[in-house]
Design goal:
The protein is α+β, with helices and mostly antiparallel strands and 183 residues long. It contains 5 helices and 8 strands; from the N terminus they run E-E-H-H-H-E-E-E-H-E-H-E-E. It starts with 6 loop residues before the first strand and ends with a strand.
C-alpha cells in the first residue's frame, strides 16, 4: 500500500508554486462549489451535486491510494484549491498505459495550472519512482474539450487515436494522447 504523498510543482517566473496534496474533508465545500461550474461539468464523468456526494468522492480518492488504482491530489495555489489531478494505474489488457486526469476551477483556467501539473507528473512517472512504474502515459479527453487538447500538446503528448463513444458512461468520442518514456 502506498501512503498519500504531496508533490510540488515549481514556480515559474509568472506563476507561484503549486502543491498537489491528498484530499481532505475540509475540501468538501470547495469541491461542491467547483462542481457547480457548468463549463466543467460538461466534461466530468462523475459530477458532484452536494456535500454527501463530495464526502463519498473524497473517500473514493483515499481508497484509490490504498489500492493503488489511482493517486489523486487536490491542487493548491497559495493555500486555495484550484484543481484536481489524478494518475490512474494501467489496467491490462484494456490499457498498458498509465493515465492522467485533471480539472481546474473556473477562476484558475488559462493560467497553465493543468499543464504544469501534467509536466510534473510526467517527470515523476518517468523519473525512476517505484510507486507506479510507467513506460507509457495516456491522456484521454472528450473530443471538443479544446483546453485539455491544448494541455496535451503543450506537454508533448501526441494524438494517438480517436476512441469511439461508449454510452452511457462515455457518450462522446475521445482523443487519446500518448507519451512514451524517453530512451
Amino acid at each position: 500500500m502506498t501512503s498519500p504523498m504531496t508533490l510540488t510543482v515549481d514556480p515559474t517566473p509568472t506563476a507561484p508554486a503549486l502543491t498537489l496534496r491528498p484530499w481532505q474533508d475540509s475540501d468538501i465545500p470547495a469541491l461542491v462549489v467547483a462542481h457547480g461550474d457548468q463549463a466543467m461539468r460538461r466534461w466530468l464523468i462523475r459530477p458532484i451535486d452536494d456535500e454527501d456526494q463530495a464526502r463519498a468522492w473524497v473517500a473514493d480518492q483515499h481508497t484509490g491510494w490504498a489500492d493503488q488504482t489511482h493517486l489523486s491530489w487536490a491542487v493548491e495555489e497559495g493555500g486555495t484549491l484550484v484543481g484536481y489531478f489524478v494518475i490512474k494505474a494501467a489496467s491490462p489488457p484494456k490499457t498498458l498505459a498509465t493515465g492522467l486526469g485533471y480539472w481546474t476551477v473556473a477562476g484558475a483556467r488559462g493560467k497553465g495550472i493543468a499543464s504544469r501539473c501534467v509536466d510534473t507528473a510526467t517527470q515523476w512517472l518517468f523519473g525512476g519512482q517505484d510507486v507506479m512504474p510507467s513506460d507509457e502515459i495516456e491522456l484521454l479527453h472528450t473530443v471538443g474539450n479544446e483546453g485539455s487538447c491544448r494541455v496535451a500538446h503543450k506537454c508533448g503528448y501526441i494524438l494517438d487515436s480517436v476512441l469511439p463513444s461508449m454510452p452511457p458512461k462515455f457518450p462522446d468520442e475521445a482523443h487519446r494522447h500518448l507519451r512514451k518514456r524517453p530512451v
